[in-house]
Amino acid sequence: MKRFLAAVFCMALFCSLTGCKSTGESSVEFYAMDTTMNVTAYGTGAKSAVSETQAEVDRLEALLSRTRSDSEVSAINSGAADAPVAVSIETAGLLNAAWSYSHTTNGAFDITIAPVVSAWGFTTDHYQVPTQPALDALLNAVDYTGVLVEGISSSSARVTLRKGQAVDLGGIAKGYASDCVEAILSENGVERAMASLGGNIYVRGTKPDGSAWRVGVQDPDRSGGFVGVLSLSDAFAVTSGGYQRYFEQDGKRYHHIIDPATGYPAESGLTSVTIVADGNKTETPNIPGNGTMCDAFSTAMFVMGEEKAAEFWRSGAYNFQMVLVTEDGRVLVTDGLADKFEQEDGSGYAYETISRTPS
Ligand code: AMP
Ligand code: MG
């Protein structure tokens, strides 16, 4: 009996340490990619999936970080102009996806924005407003078409940049990490889970009680408040907003999403963009999927502004939905999300739907 009680006690202690509950819940919280991340999974395979997750995100950060001198992205950025730099197939594959999102958004998303982001101090936290001549000089090299990615289908992938160029995957890496987390959950046979990687959410299946996951869309003007809530299952939901990272100087706020056309923080009339797309459910690891797409488009639509974003969505070239929050107090929801979005009582935003045909 004593031994049985000791076993029960040990089990209870173990569960409180690992977070397992009667639903077979396992969760982990950690800091990576400059943000707090947490993953909670339920049922069979949850424990091993959760423990693999943190190692996977750490691996991706080591590969893709621009501020770590030993990353592949740093190797690319410190390579000589016009000289190919050998990289892994994985880094080349992500750069290739980033290139095509830069192309399809007509450069609103641009992976070569790196030197401009640095000039504002967002990579070092030593913030400053760059001079116009300094910005003009840097903008000369901002052009994703100068990035050459070769050899993805062979075992010798390489990336070549032009003079003055550097790449920044900050606008897409967390989305790619959420694709990789999704693949780990699939590999481990997990059916219900929720991952929050900074502003990048992935929900798998439903909550253990069978209801949809509730994903809050933060109010950009009210810390801790919500514009509304999305009820989602098997989906990625990625938010970009000027409120997520900024500094103030002489009474003006400067945020981290740069308009490649001006070199200044985008002033498109939007205060946040949330992009929603289907969860991948793939067991093929390390391939950019819808998490990556949502991350690229949340940044790009923020730069593009309400009208261009709506036009891009209406083109139907990509399968996604979105919630736009505007500076003048409106929340715009594409019609595919209308029955999944519930406005927060008293949030004060005027609700509008974006439909396939402009009104
Ligand atoms: P996100 O929070 O996903 O919108 O990404 C913002 C991050 O992406 C910034 O901190 C920069 O590292 C990078 N970034 C800023 N502006 C752009 C842009 N126009 N295109 C691509 N990446 C950008
Ligand atoms: Mg993004």
Q: Major sheet: size, sense and barrel closure?
A: 9 strands, mixed
Distance between the termini: 73 Å
- Count every helix, treating DSSP H or I runs of 4 or more residues as helices: 8
Structural class: alpha+beta
Q: For the CA atoms, what is the radius of gyration?
A: 21 Å
Number of strands: 17
Dominant shape = globular
- Helical proportion? 25-40%
Low confidence ranges: 1-21
> Helix-strand pattern, N to C?
HEEHHEHHHEEHEEEEEEEEHEEEE
Largest beta sheet: strand ordering: 1-2-6-7-10-13-14-15-17
In round numbers, the mean pLDDT is 92
Task: Give the percentage of residues in beta strands.
Answer: 25-35%
What ligands can be seen in this structure?
adenosine monophosphate, magnesium ion
Question: What labels would you give this structure?
Answer:
359 residues; disordered N terminus; 8 helices; binds adenosine monophosphate; alpha+beta; 17 strands; single chain; binds magnesium ion; nine-stranded mixed β-sheet
Task: Write a structural description.
The structure is a single chain. With 359 residues, the chain is of the alpha+beta class. It is built from eight helices and 17 strands. Strands 1-2-6-7-10-13-14-15-17 form a nine-stranded mixed β-sheet. Strand 4 (148-150) and strand 5 form a beta hairpin. It is globular. The N and C termini lie far apart (73 Å). Mean pLDDT is 92; it is low at 1-21. The structure holds adenosine monophosphate (AMP) and magnesium ion.
A few lines on this structure:
This protein is α+β, with helices and mostly antiparallel strands and 359 residues long. Helix content is 31%, strand content 25%.
